Amino acid sequence: MQKAKFVKDIKEGEQIRDLFLVSNKAVLSSNAGKAYISLALRDRTGQVECRVWDRAEEIAKRFDRDDIVEATGSAIQYQGRIQLKVHDVRKTEGEANLADFLPVTEKGIEPLWKELQALVRGLKDPDLSRLLARIFPDPPETETARRFRQAPGGKSMHHDYIGGLLEHTVSVAAICRFLSGHYEGVDADMLVAGALLHDIGKVGELSYDGAFDYTDEGRLLGHLYMGTEWVTAECARIDGFPREKAMLLKHMILSHHGELEYGSPKRPKTLEAVLLHFAENMDSKANAFLEAVGDMREGAAWTDYQRMFERYLYAGKKNV
Amino acid sequence: MQKAKFVKDIKEGEQIRDLFLVSNKAVLSSNAGKAYISLALRDRTGQVECRVWDRAEEIAKRFDRDDIVEATGSAIQYQGRIQLKVHDVRKTEGEANLADFLPVTEKGIEPLWKELQALVRGLKDPDLSRLLARIFPDPPETETARRFRQAPGGKSMHHDYIGGLLEHTVSVAAICRFLSGHYEGVDADMLVAGALLHDIGKVGELSYDGAFDYTDEGRLLGHLYMGTEWVTAECARIDGFPREKAMLLKHMILSHHGELEYGSPKRPKTLEAVLLHFAENMDSKANAFLEAVGDMREGAAWTDYQRMFERYLYAGKKNV
Amino acid sequence: MQKAKFVKDIKEGEQIRDLFLVSNKAVLSSNAGKAYISLALRDRTGQVECRVWDRAEEIAKRFDRDDIVEATGSAIQYQGRIQLKVHDVRKTEGEANLADFLPVTEKGIEPLWKELQALVRGLKDPDLSRLLARIFPDPPETETARRFRQAPGGKSMHHDYIGGLLEHTVSVAAICRFLSGHYEGVDADMLVAGALLHDIGKVGELSYDGAFDYTDEGRLLGHLYMGTEWVTAECARIDGFPREKAMLLKHMILSHHGELEYGSPKRPKTLEAVLLHFAENMDSKANAFLEAVGDMREGAAWTDYQRMFERYLYAGKKNV
Amino acid sequence: MQKAKFVKDIKEGEQIRDLFLVSNKAVLSSNAGKAYISLALRDRTGQVECRVWDRAEEIAKRFDRDDIVEATGSAIQYQGRIQLKVHDVRKTEGEANLADFLPVTEKGIEPLWKELQALVRGLKDPDLSRLLARIFPDPPETETARRFRQAPGGKSMHHDYIGGLLEHTVSVAAICRFLSGHYEGVDADMLVAGALLHDIGKVGELSYDGAFDYTDEGRLLGHLYMGTEWVTAECARIDGFPREKAMLLKHMILSHHGELEYGSPKRPKTLEAVLLHFAENMDSKANAFLEAVGDMREGAAWTDYQRMFERYLYAGKKNV
Amino acid sequence: MQKAKFVKDIKEGEQIRDLFLVSNKAVLSSNAGKAYISLALRDRTGQVECRVWDRAEEIAKRFDRDDIVEATGSAIQYQGRIQLKVHDVRKTEGEANLADFLPVTEKGIEPLWKELQALVRGLKDPDLSRLLARIFPDPPETETARRFRQAPGGKSMHHDYIGGLLEHTVSVAAICRFLSGHYEGVDADMLVAGALLHDIGKVGELSYDGAFDYTDEGRLLGHLYMGTEWVTAECARIDGFPREKAMLLKHMILSHHGELEYGSPKRPKTLEAVLLHFAENMDSKANAFLEAVGDMREGAAWTDYQRMFERYLYAGKKNV
Amino acid sequence: MQKAKFVKDIKEGEQIRDLFLVSNKAVLSSNAGKAYISLALRDRTGQVECRVWDRAEEIAKRFDRDDIVEATGSAIQYQGRIQLKVHDVRKTEGEANLADFLPVTEKGIEPLWKELQALVRGLKDPDLSRLLARIFPDPPETETARRFRQAPGGKSMHHDYIGGLLEHTVSVAAICRFLSGHYEGVDADMLVAGALLHDIGKVGELSYDGAFDYTDEGRLLGHLYMGTEWVTAECARIDGFPREKAMLLKHMILSHHGELEYGSPKRPKTLEAVLLHFAENMDSKANAFLEAVGDMREGAAWTDYQRMFERYLYAGKKNV
Known about the structure:
Six copies of one chain form a homohexamer.
Chain A: E1 15-29, E2 35-43, E3 46-52, H1 56-60, E4 68-78, E5 81-91, H2 98-101, H3 109-121, H4 126-135, H5 143-150, H6 164-182, H7 188-197, H8 202-205, E6 206-207, E7 213-214, H9 216-220, H10 222-236, H11 243-255, H12 271-294
Parallel strand pairs in A: 3-5
Antiparallel strand pairs in A: 1-2, 1-4, 2-3, 4-5, 6-7
Helix pairs in contact in A: 3-6, 6-7, 6-12, 7-11, 7-12, 10-11, 11-12
């Protein structure tokens, strides 16, 4: 079965029979003491609240959070919002296209991957070149490379969509390539290589087979540690990889949050680490700004309150 | 008289008769109760401690701090450093070339000014274009433009040399021009114009006719306020300059330190203000990093402690 | 039509036909898919939630947020609170008395204005005297003076009522007049003038024609900047206004929040600026304390949690 | 013997035989291995460095830090400052007038005491009136009252002179009396009583029989705790002193530093405690500002860096 | 009447007639304008929301918050939770067993009291021994000792149950006894005595006759101050209690929160005070961790967000 | 040659010919332009300033910082301190006993190693037991184990002596063993294993073959990262080491500084990590307290200002 109707297009009164990702599921009891299911179903265009009033206990056994399901029901309005009154839910067999159910980068995973490959090919240092080609093989035949192309850039703050990690990485690396020409005395290959690897630990920190979340290891060790350790392992697999270069690269990954209180156990102490920190921080904020503007209500000049910025943002009179 | 011998070239035992800038002057009493002058003389290559033991009271009347003087004396060693035993000091007449006595940008004021003019000419918005051409006329026939070309970028933290403000401004604006192509949705002209004007208030915040220092107004109002107020005045002199554009430009200047605790009374709330803040901060840090590396002792891998960064910085094994 | 019944006097079951200020308006859809209007209507005694169930789309076109309207309906109880079931809404013609619809200072605008005029007349310094008489003409024939008399002192924190800015200004200036006698070495006229002008920027930072809110310029530049710039402009209009006095006055306005993190780009560096900061801060807190006590439930010794103070406040056993 | 020559009047070459307070004393060894005494002698006008080169070990046994001694010697210049070459030191017998040796309030202890008594007599609440009359009897026949009149207001930050505590207390109480009329709803007697008692703990926190220092109890418990405990004890000695009033008074003392990080274990939660905190803080800062201006070098517009304010202060062009 | 059915055992549909503690009570109006009572009833196993729809005004007069009442009604489900529809409420006569209605330490008050007595008997210093025996007499015949055995350790953060203060005290003192053997140079008796007394002020800071809350004195003075003052009073009642020992003990109590911003007006400055602070802090956190794990939903590896820790806590795969 | 005379025993006038560690060396020029060597020589009892006035350039070539040298000279007094006028310096051949030249733990490396082995043998978990036995083999036949026994616990803050890391590790692990019995629900083996490994990264973070300093890797990656990565590598060498246990152990090492701002990229989220953090922090502070007391001048009750504590510490009247 193919996905046909998307969440943002559902209208009151319509009959629905379509595929969704289960992003939340709870079995509750009604006033009258009868069990019902409170569900959240989502696809890449949004999320909709649902209720299963009949045969709740039986239906609840058929599926779990993060499953792709076929749901049948009708759309009603409740307190001004669309809600689905669901009659039946069945787990789908076979592999679904995750990009139908989760938001995905608008820039396209393939074009971004090509940009990344161009950045990798631009490295002249033979050690870094070999390392990066190992980590980002083209075609992406390793598990890590495949997951890297899918991973979101974050759970909710910025680049929180499929391909977000790839998009963020390519953007930061492109800024770093510019900076390596803009300032004298920069080790260009080290800076670009550090940019390409800085968030590699997110491949293991986040789970994104269904709804985005942190893994246990992600919460206990974090992507700064995980990525740095992983680069250690990859360097060790390359004969004669110079110790000093490995140390500088690892320092960049470990320090890229810039300050201890943002989770970097060491602050940037090389020029390349300093520049990477700024490029990375700027790119996160620019992406979050553009997402906030994208979410604005029509006619507004100001966004809603943005927790990441701790302020309202001004998009100007364009919308008004 | 022309400057002949520079401070960094003075050797023990030499007889000196040359021009210097007086960067400090105090009349003290010796153990024996006799007056003497403790002087600091400088040129663009450095500073040397001096003593005037004879006729101190008479000689002291002839000159003040920030004067260019002709000093006669002999070079001795004291506690491992060169000191001048000065016999005579006379104030010079006529205009001296400040660039002989204060450090000056290595990139050259003329080439930087040409880059700035190219950035101004690249603006397509007619209002911003008119405003910037008024503020930075070519040739620089206004007092402000002339002072802007000479001003240091700071008293001691970064770009602390003649032409430093110009160098910093051009660098930030070039980064911003790159960013306006890198991200969608950026108002490119607004971003570059804001970059070109962001530190204009430093023209009045710092005095740099002799040693660098703050003006009273600089300490009481600061360059963020002074620059913003000045842009208000310039916009008012242009017929029909749109109120919204003036507001957005002023917001960028006022908010470019990024956080309240760094002296911005408002934090960046437009995309252009957010990007300017990062570009500006990065450029200050990159310049300070490169200056710290330039000051390193031979054979060292680490710089001295850097107060601006609150850490030691690593330049790598290159020097070792 | 005259305002007759006030919000705080509406009882369950009554029929209402009266004037209100629209402080919020949204068109929503009911469960059944039918449009209705969710309204908040207010007058100076409080605010009441309303619903328009019939002819919602037609009625919604007739008025907007911040309009004064005549509403017809009946009062019901919903979840323990009074709500209006509204049958009809019409926008009123002609000018309404804002003081009927927004809370207003209990001290009276006229008596406060007289106190302010007495403070202005008490200035002996001819420059400051001329400046203040220009800014606060009596009678208040300029737009600024008229707006200054109406403006609230803040959106929600303290003095958040019509005339609040005037009340706060007079109170701070009176404290400053006392302090100028209490301490030696104070420039009394400078201190009182600074007190009278310190929040003048709020005239443009806040909009208060309907519900209180910030203007775009208020959010992007802030009242500290706006007030200081405005004083620059006013001083420029007075022939020979001394540069040093203007600088000192501007410093007081710009620094009166006391610390960078509270939005002052410079901290107080003159005795008058230090004293003004304390007087201003104390008056805001004292007003907020008294408002919190005024809002207490009967029988309570402690106020609700006060966000401005980040604590509960103790009014003592008086109420108990 | 009477004090004759004061430190600020000693000139190079003079023979000295006079009384001083020993504010520092150390026995050291010269290069040649010979013992000598390094001394600091002070009177109310300042402090002078001294050396005893002959019979150092014998002379050192005769006196200690904080003694009043008669010193004989001659004044020389050393590195631009006056130093005493001391020939002999003898401890004086009998009681000396501490006010000759330590700086003392310029407002006079007696006039300040009279002001304080007037403030006490102005209290109408019989409980508070009885309490204050006990603590500040007139004439000051208790040990505490006598010490209270002498104590400095601090070790070095503000009011750091004999009578400084009294001066600060009277000034704060006078401001509080003004505020109790300025705001409605203030318990005037509670506010003034709290002001009079707020720093009473400093009587035991500081030692000031010689040079100012902290007592062990002062460092381990602090004047906020000590003063509050002491008021508990005094209230307990008054029959029927109301528990609520004692609690409110103690809260004011304990909370007058305003924030936890300034050493108040509770923040102000009553209107009187809030006002006292502001009045107290303002008075400390105003006094420190005036002392900083008093210490300025002639011709300067800016003070030296003030650690208490973490900034330079501007006294204006008056001195220039 | 004896307590029979506990909150956690109430099932939908059951008829209830049992004793409860009233932890909240409010009289509200229904949509229809009819008064009803919103109640929270609790016992040691939890709390249940209730409504009294009939004769609300009459019934409301019979009891207050913190009373033990006999309630009659029936259990229904509302939004997935059990609620009581209450028909009648009567206040009980006679003394109830508080331990039926509030959560109580699982370690038992008697065993904990025995441990505490053993710790007191272990003191060798005669002064401290006498003091502690006075404060913790066995049997607990004083009001303070009786209240100390019942008091919770906190309102909601940690040890928030009857006997919690005793449990926390005994745990901290046992750790301190271990530490006094682990480190050289520790005054073992001072450390253990300080541990036993450190939170004694909570006896008066918290009220726990019904629901836990702060007393007025607790909010205005706090348990650090109250406990220290109380030790002063107890030491004063012992002839010849050494001043130095009292000072050290008081310092430990006053400083045990470790930092000014956590409410200690002085930070720990003796070895015993430093160790007590760590032991105390560790015990609070360990208890809070264990409570959080105890509250976990079955099958979870992570706790809910813990406000005290500002993080999620990991209990591991044991539950999963 | 054997070390004979120790620094603390050198008296003025003595002739010295003995072994020292060179902790600082600089070739400078005298006033007269002649080269001389400024040296700092140390042994385990302290450090002495030295000058080599004759044949400085020749002698300077023979040795470097961190060498053990034989120095010949005579002891003089300079500004009250002993200084060596050195005539000759020669580098020694063969291996010296580092413990003669650097301060060493007073508890003895062998007894501490025995305690550590007992703690390792006490582990019951077979995986952790195997891991710890690998890392701490007995006898210490690996390079890491040998270095671990010698390493200091820090550069200057606490445990800054040979064997300090071992002493600190054993002390923390002993506290943790106690805590694992004191609290229920603790995984005792995990807690003790984490304690034994928590600072293992310091083996590579610090260099201590001569004077203590940080390695490049220590400054760029830090001991938290380095230790965690190292445990990853060791676990990987053990067949079937459970992934969950490795993760928990690594989390403890990475989080043991407790807060992001103290350099832990993740805060403690398991009970064992929470307890380890407190035990570790307490032990560092207790050691620093005892060292500060050990350094006190005779007759003092208060230590000098302690930068680690940001306060003066009170040792009591014992010394007085």
